[in-house]
Specification:
With about 550 residues, the protein is of the alpha/beta class. The protein contains 17 helices and 25 strands. It folds into 3 domains: about 40-210, ANL, N-terminal domain (Rossmann fold, 3-Layer(aba) Sandwich), CATH 3.40.50; about 260-445, 3-Layer(aba) Sandwich (Rossmann fold), CATH 3.40.50.12780; about 445-545, 2-Layer Sandwich (GMP Synthetase, Chain A, domain 3). Strand 24, helix 16 (about 500-510) and strand 25 (about 520) form a beta-alpha-beta unit. This is AMP-binding enzyme, C-terminal domain.
Length: about 550
């Protein structure tokens, strides 16, 4: 339109760096980080992050370079989320459950110049460097993160580090008047997150400054995070950059309460001591809180909003969390959507529904949050939206500014993911008449039995309702006659007992008979560090059991 121009007065590239800069002014004397006896204010955190950026620049890290981190939820990990981008670099946070072999693969793929490593994981990092030394000339420099007052000599020998490459000494090299390197284009990368996958083909998801900025604000809105929240770190900061709450808390001048290890006692104690207002966690984390001993539970000092996601939560888990006094917000997304992408926005008219009906609605994945343009359920071939009947399945697809920029060094996979102008999640879902999306399964987890599609999530929700069950996961087991039948892996609550026949009978009372598991295995469930059940492990176990039915046996 005539008369308009774009100039520095009306256009500045969006970046989460601005959140920290504002909080240093507005909330300068307020605690930004609490970790045991360690306390920092927002003014101090800002200074430390600027000095970190300066030290990185002096160390030879240039704009666009990758800087990796292998650490739990500690203050240094939080500072890296600002200090690295302030140097113009890209932060790559690594899963702390990776072994040396996987870390070496991701290091080689990302070409990180520097890797910050918590002392707890130093042997993993050393092992990765040793592997790389045999195959690659590009070796990262390790910078060791110690606990306050922890002597360097307490770390086992053989380290490629020295005292000058310990985190606090490295920080001291930086200058507080360093000129922060801001993005010239808001679509420049800010972070690199690796999806769960195999060592043969890692997928590095690229986040932009713009996407991180918008998703952070969306997360603050969807959890009704007013100014100065107290956020308890129960979501790993390495997972989608803590679902972007690393930046969201800074946007609202909140306090980050860091936990190295997440336990029920640690969570309840932290909530009571620091008057926590917000936290997050996969359904597994919620389940741990629900089933913790009475001696570990403490009354909540006020309303605590819990954002859950990462895996579809069973309605029973949502219901029991609310009974404990938590306000549960259900979100859904993937690494490719910066973590949270949708929100099951609650409607007042649902308050009058029976408790079980409310829990079932809350278990839906909902609608796009305000930072995302839209979410839909489409036929993956025709790209037409499925009917809003709550029955017809399709692929859940996303579109908007909080969708990844692409996969690092894998243009083919990026184009496949964006085919048709939408991000294809690979998740199977339905759409209800009110427009709310409900996830039915990952496409690879759907069980096809006798031509019928069985949702493992639906079967798991029913199993969870059995009073003796603590955890459950359902996968396909080969079946000679039916092709596949549901196989349930179940962990019982301490002191409780149940037989396979009881679990099957319970399912048949609430589901069509063909959906009830024909195999029930009692054991601990393998988990990722973010609390997701490793279904690929269970699928292998189920396949290893062999075909269930003999030829000619067709009875269910």
């Amino acid at each position: 339109m005539e008369g308009t121009i774009r100039c520095p007065a009306n256009y500045v590239p969006l970046t989460p760096i601005s959140f920290l800069e504002r909080s240093a002014i507005v909330y300068g004397e307020r605690f930004s980080v609490i970790y045991g006896d360690v306390r920092y204010t927002w003014k101090e955190t800002h200074t430390r992050c600027v000095k970190l950026a300066s030290a990185l620049s002096q160390f030879g890290v240039s704009p666009g370079d990758v800087v990796a981190a292998l650490a739990p939820n500690i203050p240094a990990m939080y500072e890296l989320h600002f200090g690295v981008p302030m140097a113009g670099a890209v932060l790559c946070t690594l899963n702390t459950r990776h072994d040396s072999a996987m870390v070496s693969v991701l290091q080689k793929h990302s070409e990180a110049k520097v890797i910050f490593v918590d002392y707890q994981f130093i042997d993993i990092a050393r092992g990765a460097v040793e592997i790389l030394s045999k195959t690659s000339a590009k070796l990262p420099q390790i910078i060791l993160i110690l606990e306050a007052g922890q002597p360097l000599q307490n770390i086992s020998s053989g380290s490629p580090t020295s005292e000058k490459l310990e985190y606090e000494k490295f920080l001291a090299m930086g200058k507080a008047d360093f000129e922060v390197i801001r993005p010239k284009d808001e679509l420049e990368p800010i972070a690199l997150n690796y999806t769960s996958g195999t060592t043969s083909r890692p997928k590095g998801v690229i986040y932009s400054h713009r996407g991180a900025y918008l998703n952070s604000l969306a997360c603050a809105l969807l959890t009704e995070m007013s100014s100065m929240p107290i956020f308890l770190w129960t979501v790993p900061m390495f997972h989608c950059n803590g679902w972007t709450f690393t930046w969201a808390v800074a946007a609202q001048g909140g306090t980050n309460v860091c936990l190295r290890n997440v336990t029920a006692k640690g969570v309840f104690d932290s909530i009571a001591e620091h008057k926590v207002t917000h936290m997050g966690g996969a359904p597994t984390v919620l389940n741990i809180l629900i089933n913790s001993p009475a001696s570990e539970k403490k009354p909540l000092p006020g309303n605590v909003v819990v954002l859950t996601g990462g895996a579809p939560p069973p309605p029973k888990v949502l219901f029991e969390m609310q009974n404990l006094g938590f306000g549960v917000v259900h979100s859904y997304g993937l690494t490719e959507t910066y973590g949270p992408g949708t929100i099951c926005t609650w409607k007042p008219e649902w308050d009058s529904l029976p408790a079980d009906a409310r829990a079932k609605i809350k278990a839906r994945q909902g609608v796009n949050h305000l930072g995302l343009e839209t979410v839909d359920v489409k036929d993956p071939v025709t790209m037409k939206s499925v009917p809003t009947d709550g029955k017809t399945t399709g692929e859940v697809m996303f579109r908007g500014n909080t969708v990844m920029s692409g996969y690092l060094k894998d243009l083919k996979a990026t184009k496949e993911a964006f085919e048709g102008g939408w991000f294809r999640s690979g998740d199977v879902g339905v759409k209800h008449s009110d427009g709310y999306v409900e996830l039915k399964d990952r496409s690879k987890d759907i069980i096809i039995s006798g031509g019928e599609n069985i949702s493992s999530i639906e079967v798991e929700s029913v199993i969870f309702n059995h009073p003796a069950v603590l955890e459950a996961a359902v996968v396909a087991r080969p079946d000679y006659y039916w092709g596949e039948t549901p196989c349930a892996f179940v962990k019982l609550k301490d002191g409780c007992s149940a037989s396979a026949e009881e679990i099957t009978k319970h399912c048949r009372q609430h589901l069509p008979h063909y959906m009830a598991p024909r195999t029930v295995v009692f054991e601990d469930l393998p988990k990722t560090s973010t609390g997701k059940t490793q279904k690929f492990v269970l699928r292998e176990r189920a396949r290893g059991m062999g075909s269930l039915s003999k030829k000619g046996s067709s009875k269910l």
